[in-house]
Amino acid sequence: MTSIINIGDISSSENESLCPSLTFKQRLYGAGGCLVLGFIFSILSWVSVFLQDYVFFGVLFTIGNLISISGSLFLCGPVKQIKNMFNEGRWIASAVYIVTMILTILAAVLLKNGIAVIFCCLIQYVAMWWYFLSYIPFARDCVKNAISGALSK
Fold first, then answer.
1. For the chain, which residues make up each domain, given as ranges?
2. Can you give the pTM of this predicted structure?
3. 153: which residues sit within 8 A by CB, 6+ positions away?
């Protein structure tokens, strides 16, 4: 099967279009900073669960995920990141991830429905990990085999 988007067509200028003057070390700091900040938002979101404020949880959790994934923009640039997200092996996980982020915010802000927020966050979390696993060779196959092995017992 062919890739939806040909990643090989990306030029190096597009690759560094987010912050072209940054060194590789500075890009790593930017990516790491986004990852840490996103993690802090995610941890803070769980505090709101204990306070039973599921609306605030959904918003903080989603913002944390957006900040975390935006760190990759420092490493490969926005054009390449978007093309990577929607290539053949990742487009379903990426689409589910993006849609559930939107649904989480809508469930939190418009519906103010805690159960819907938690459900969307769970799906968002699974989609995020499935997306991340796509970058590790054979990781998805290992997870599938582990789940099917656990379910067959």
1. 24-152
2. 0.76
3. none
